[in-house]
Amino acid sequence: MLRPPTFSPLGVPLIQAVAPAAGVPTTFATVLCANLHGYDALAEVLPPAQVVALLEEYFSLLTDAVLEFGGQIIHLAEADSMAGFGLGDCRHTQILEALSAARSIQRRFARIRHAWQARFSIDTGIGIGIHRGEFAICALGSPTEPTLLVVGDTVNLAGALCRRARAGEVLVSNAVHGTHELAAAPRPGGPDFLCLPRIQLRGRSVPLDVWCAPVPARLRMAGAARSDAPDRTDAGREPGGEVAGG
Known about the structure:
By secondary structure, the protein is of the alpha+beta class. It has a single domain (24-218), classed as 2-Layer Sandwich (Alpha-Beta Plaits), CATH 3.30.70.1230. The chain contains seven helices and ten strands. It has helices at residues 11-18, 39-45, 48-68, 95-120, 153-164, 174-177, 180-184, and strands spanning 26-37, 72-77, 80-85, 125-141, 146-151, 170-173, 194-195, 210-212, 218-220, 242-244. Strands 1, 2, 3, 4, 5, 6, 7 and 8 form an eight-stranded mixed sheet that branches. Strands 9-10 form a two-stranded parallel sheet. A hairpin with a 2-residue loop joins strand 2 (72-77) and strand 3 (80-85). Helix 3 (48-68) runs antiparallel to helix 4. The longest helix is centred in the middle third of the chain and has 26 residues, at 95-120. The protein is globular, with a radius of gyration of 18 Å. Residues 1-7, 12-16 and 224-246 have low confidence and may be disordered.
């Protein structure tokens, strides 16, 4: 299914409101990107109309979680989505809210995942990446019907972390993990973030420090590994446990 990007009623106006009066609108935000693993398999075996119904269920869950924790949906397109937290607010990064939304998405999707697996015998899961930084929003294309695009390395990195994340994982950059908000957050008796070996994300010249956030469970997807998220031999990297898919 091909569809144009969809923006929330508040996400884009918030960016434009804090942008300079002249030039391309820019803002700082904590960006959360999510990708639906197993989407290609669903699209291959199901009629398009049925795929649309499943995507509506998926995006409804994701949107509800983002809005519940104060975020804004910036972009929805097929199996991918992007949300912003702390748009234009230099004093409050809302990193904790973004992480809470990510954990909520993973927890809520468990029921949907099991239902889809029972109906279609297809494993699905969500990989999430979170990064914070500056990005721009612009209108390109047809003068009469321009397409709104979100541009910048912040968006690219959040998307790359998202694609790298396994099903059930939440990966964050050092720009997120190193903030004082996260350092001061209480985690009584709970698992801490796991520092992964530095990874080389596709299209980037310098390896990055990446952290895996504690989540309820990391899923094991049946079938071949994703080409854009190759298997990693990260010893002891089960901060949230693991369950077998299917």
